[in-house]
UniProtKB/TrEMBL annotation:
Family matches, as CDD domains: nsLTP1
Keyword terms of this UniProt record: Signal
Record-linked SUPFAM superfamilies: Bifunctional inhibitor/lipid-transfer protein/seed storage 2S albumin
Name of this chain's protein: Bifunctional inhibitor/plant lipid transfer protein/seed storage helical domain-containing protein
Keyword Zinc attached: no
Domain of life: Eukaryota
InterPro entries reported in the protein's UniProt record: Bifun_inhib/LTP/seed_sf, Bifunc_inhib/LTP/seed_store, Plant_nsLTP
Residue ranges of domain Bifunctional inhibitor/plant lipid transfer protein/seed storage helical in the record: 24-110
Species annotation: Vitis rotundifolia (Muscadine grape)
Any one biological process term the GO annotation gives: lipid transport
Length: 115
């Protein structure tokens, strides 16, 4: 009986962690190398580390809820940083990804993100 209960708890823990939205600290740590690119006076191309982070975040954005959570995280974090929202859509293209990132800003409605 206790083995069955223990196994059930393990299955539920694994399932719940697989169903969890991406964590904001993870998203921020992955895209942090992109900050210099996102500034108005940033380099013309994102760094290799930036592209690796964007690729990682793209990989964890499996559902619409994931994309909303990532968008909300970026929206809240970028609120404290001087950046050019128009440079965000360039990340996917310049990093070789086939995603359309919205120009995330203070007024972005994350529930409508489609990437």
């Amino acid at each position: 009986m206790s083995r069955v209960l223990g196994s059930l708890i393990i299955v539920l823990l694994v399932w719940s962690s697989a169903m969890a939205e991406p964590s904001c600290p993870k998203v921020i740590s992955e895209v942090a190398p992109c900050l210099s690119f996102l500034r108005d006076d940033g380099p013309a191309k994102p760094s290799k580390r930036c592209c690796e982070g964007v690729t990682e975040v793209n990989g964890i954005a499996k559902t619409k809820q994931d994309r909303i959570a990532i968008c909300e995280c970026l929206k809240q974090t970028l609120n404290y940083i001087d950046y050019d929202p128009k440079r965000i859509p360039l990340l996917g293209k310049q990093c070789g990804l086939t995603i359309d990132l919205p120009p995330t800003g203070q007024n972005t409605n994350c529930s409508q993100v489609a990437y």
